[in-house]
Amino acid sequence: MALYAIGDLHLHFQSELKARSQIKGRVWKNHEEKFRKNCAKMIRPEDTLVLVGDHSWGRKMAECEEDLQYICDLPGRKILTRGNHDMFWDAKKTNALAQRFAGKLEFLQGNFFSYQDYALVGTKGFTFEGPFYLNQWGQVMGWDEEKEVQAKKIVRRELARLSASFEAAREAGYRKYIMFLHYPPTNILEEHSAFTDMAEAYGAQQVVYAHCHGDSRFYDSIHGDYHGIQYSLVSGDFLKWKPRRILD
Ligand SMILES: [Fe+2]
Ligand SMILES: [Fe+2]
């Protein structure tokens, strides 16, 4: 029995792959086939796979059905969190989504799921991604302050959702937590953030995140041990479509 995670499948069986520079290149060629084969090799029926957001390019449910069916057909238990591109998933309608896919997919949003004696908690998260203004040496000299104000509002909302998830698990008696975010827990200016503070306050053992694509972004946030918590980036292109083993 093992717990695996990966994020950012960006499936597009029914929608056009958007021409974004960060999701181009060899690693994305037939990526859904590479991932399907890796899952078939690695994941057994008793294992759990957490998919950490950006599942589909579809802009509404009708454009995501084949993508979600592909996920349903992967081996093991599948738990999904929201990414910034998941237009099919309105956070307030998570219950309806859970009912629709009952017995096939589980949706982590303000709730929690158990894995052995761990609680899997999470939310989309958020981090201010600029625009940052750089000088000729690539040093950050400033940023868009209006966008930063908007970002702070979203961060507050996401922190409330994350706290609800931790609290639900704590009230149910759990004391061991794995925390999942779609966005990285810190941005390029931060060493720590309200998300890393919350992970520490609740005593999370691991923080798992995705969203960062391409060599130039993979190290935007924390990797490995920070204040006794293990941080892992699991975006699919970073992992070359091999799910990362989080727990045995
Ligand atoms: Fe993504
Ligand atoms: Fe994303």
Describe the structure.
The chain is of the alpha/beta class and 248 residues long. It has helices at 31-42, 65-72, 94-100, 145-171, 194-202, and strands spanning 3-6, 48-52, 77-81, 105-107, 112-115, 118-123, 132-134, 140-143, 176-181, 206-209, 224-226, 229-233, 244-247. The protein is built from 5 helices and 13 strands. α4 runs parallel beside α5. The model has no long low-confidence stretch (mean pLDDT 94). The structure holds fe (ii) ion (FE2) (2 copies).
Largest sheet: 6 strands, mixed
Categorize the overall geometry: globular
Strand order of the largest sheet: 5-6-9-10-12-11
What is the structural class? alpha/beta
Q: What are the secondary-structure elements, in order, as H or E?
A: EHEHEHEEEEEHEHEEEE
Radius of gyration from CA coordinates: 17 Å
Helix content: 25-40%
Task: Write down how many β-strands occur, each being a DSSP E stretch of 2 or more residues.
Answer: 13
Q: Bound small molecules, which ones?
A: fe (ii) ion
